[in-house]
Amino acid sequence: MKKILGIGSTLVDILSQVPNEEVLNELNLPKGSMTYVNINDAVSIGERLAQQYGSQRAAGDSAANTMSGLARLGAKSGFLTMMGNDEMGQFFTNEMTRTGVEMLALKSDTPTGRVIAMVTPDGERTFATCLGASIELSPDDIKPELFDNWDIFYIEGYLVANPDMLRKAISTAKDKGLKIAIDLASYNVVEESRDFLLELVNNYVDIVFANEQEALALTGMEPENALHYIAERCEIAVVKIGAKGAYIQRGNEIVTIPPLKADVVDTTGAGDMWAAGFLAGLVKGENLQKCGMMGAIVAKNIIEVMGAKMDDERWDNIHKAIAEL
Predict the structure, then answer these.
(1) Which parts of the chain register pLDDT below 50?
(2) Distances (CA, A) of 35 to 25, 148, 229, 247
(3) Cα gap 274→292, rounded to integer Å
(4) For residue 108, is it left (φ>0), alpha (ψ between -120 and 50) or beta?
(5) What DSSP designation does 220 have?
(6) What pTM was estimated for this model as a whole?
């Protein structure tokens, strides 16, 4: 089976359910967005929300969630990152290795990053992100040997905040013969870095995951036209359209994935887990329809729980649902 190496930020998710959007307005955080904050603001916001609404923590980050999901689905995955030499970093490592992910972690004296995730009653999530030590991952840290014995290199769109490192990582992985997959991650990230992302897609990327908003930000087009636009520039294009399902295109092959009924609690991690399900199918040699359905099944389950992690019973149910496809 092919192996997937992800690269991303070591981020500990600190999750709170907030009663309304007014809380987000007071914090000057646009609903549904990801906003970068410094460590002091992250700590301050996290403490305020914990005192008022309670909180829980988990090993977070978009690519880390996907790698954990892949491991739980039986695929071989690893995670390349930079973290602080602190309790938060140790917590993150323990959580990842427990799910079966191989950690390739460099250490720093800078605090480990964290994400304050706020979930409104409609299940929408808004992030205040402090990258911490993760932003220190530099081009000099990217060595060719890191990519030995891996087949697919998975990138999260948030890494455009570190463009020199990201370009070096992608080009090095490509030179080593790996396929490149990218999840565009957030519409506002795409809007701010559209030219850079198009450069990557045009020159390096083989698989693109985008939701409807991200696809619009990248291409200026509605989902189906955006799908064709992206598919002309890479091997596989995926455009997810929320409760309406998803479109997948590889060459002239176009697949529509139907929506799955879900009791939405929290949409955190939905895109990450969709990618995990899809890639798990892909490395196992499944067709696009089954890959997409695997993505939909895992995403359906994650939005029915709070946070981006699921217990063993739910994973057992996911495996049963996939076996019935």
Answers:
(1) none
(2) 13, 34, 28, 28
(3) 8
(4) beta
(5) S
(6) 0.89
pLDDT per residue over 53-107, tens digit each? 999 888 988 999 999 999 999 999 999 999 999 999 999 999 999 999 999 999 9
Parallel, antiparallel, or unpaired: how do β-strands 76-84 and 207-211 relate?
unpaired
Going through 48-165 in order, the beta strands assigned E by DSSP cover 56-59, 76-84, 102-108, 112-119, 125-132, 152-156
Question: For residues 307 and 266, what is the distance between their CA atoms, to the nearest angstrom?
Answer: 7
Query: Which residue type does 192 have?
Result: E
Alpha-carbon distance of 204 to 278, in angstroms, equals: 20
CA 66 to chain centre: 6
Report how many helices (DSSP H) and strands (DSSP E) the chain contains, helices first. Answer: 12, 14
Structure tokens at 267: 């949409």
Residue 160 CA to residue 190 CA, distance in Å, equals 9
pLDDT attached to residue 201: 97
Beta carbons within 10 angstroms of residue 207's beta carbon: 22
What is the rounded distance in angstroms from the CA atom of residue 144 to the CA atom of residue 170?
A: 11
